[in-house]
Write a structure and sequence with these properties.
Helix content: 40-55%
Radius of gyration: 19 Å
Strand content: 5-15%
Strand order of the largest sheet: 1-2
Number of helices: 12
Number of strands: 2
Oligomer: single chain
Structural class: mainly alpha
């Protein structure tokens, strides 16, 4: 693989895409060698970093919705449905679904790792459990800083990544046909159907926010810095106002 990437670079030049091939190969080897050091700690609740201070749940109703792709968060659900049907799930969906299970559902991370082990056709213990424990499981310093917060959704990527990586919702709507009749903004965030907009405010994710579960978002900030910086405050829709007008929410 490295030989072919280098041949491509000699012919067409280096790019961010070729860099990421090298990056992922380095991570593959990192997990292989790290497993020799982490050993059985990789498969324990505290993980190889000895994370403490979290309350873990084993709520099977929540877990069943997660693995069936019925959480109500389309980016997560699309990835999980593809996994169930094909045995494959993209790297982005894999990380986002895992972070949602840990940071928002607050389920025992090993439940998710075991499900991936059962479903993935490309499963290897070092990469699967290594990604869960190294990338997803909360570090002690984040726990000490009070993260994850409990007042709102903490996996920002659930909202940000569909805008950046599936802007037209081609992949999402392929796996969630029930959303195809909605305007794109509603299909991306269908919970908006149950709210009414109140005020348009300026809000922008910042580079070092602890709500980014993936440190790559800090390294590749240019992919996210263009986002509009606006959002809507919302209130629950009254029963008489169930017919929320399409276009009440507009990106940008």
């Amino acid at each position: 693989v490295v030989h072919e990437v280098r041949r491509y670079e000699r012919a067409r030049g280096k790019s961010r895409s070729t860099y990421w091939v090298y990056h992922e190969l380095v991570f593959r080897d990192f997990f292989r060698f790290a497993l020799l050091t982490w050993r059985v700690s990789l498969f324990k609740l505290k993980g190889p970093y000895g994370v403490t201070g979290l309350e873990w749940s084993r709520d099977m109703e929540l877990f069943d919705k997660w693995r069936a792709g019925k959480t109500g968060f389309p980016f997560v659900d699309a990835g999980m449905r593809e996994l169930a049907a094909t045995g494959y799930i993209s790297h982005l969906h894999r990380q986002c679904a895992a972070a949602f299970l840990v940071r928002d559902l607050r389920l025992d991370w090993r439940m998710g790792a075991e499900h991936f082990e059962a479903m993935l056709l490309d499963h290897t213990p070092d990469a699967n459990y290594g990604n869960w424990a190294y990338r997803i499981l909360q570090r002690p310093q984040l726990v000490a800083a009070g993260c994850p917060v409990k007042e709102h959704l903490t996996t920002v990527e659930i909202v940000a990544w569909p805008v950046v990586h599936d802007a037209s919702l081609v992949h999402t709507l392929a796996w969630l046909p029930e959303l195809r009749g909605l305007p794109r903004d509603y299909a991306r965030e269908p919970w908006r159907l149950e709210t009414v907009s109140k005020a348009r405010i300026r809000v922008k994710p910042y580079k070092d926010s602890p709500l980014w579960f993936c440190s790559v978002n800090r390294m590749n900030w240019q992919e996210y810095s263009w986002m509009s910086g606006f959002a809507w405050t919302v209130a629950p829709a009254a029963s008489s106002a169930s017919s929320t007008k399409a276009g009440s929410f507009v990106l940008g």
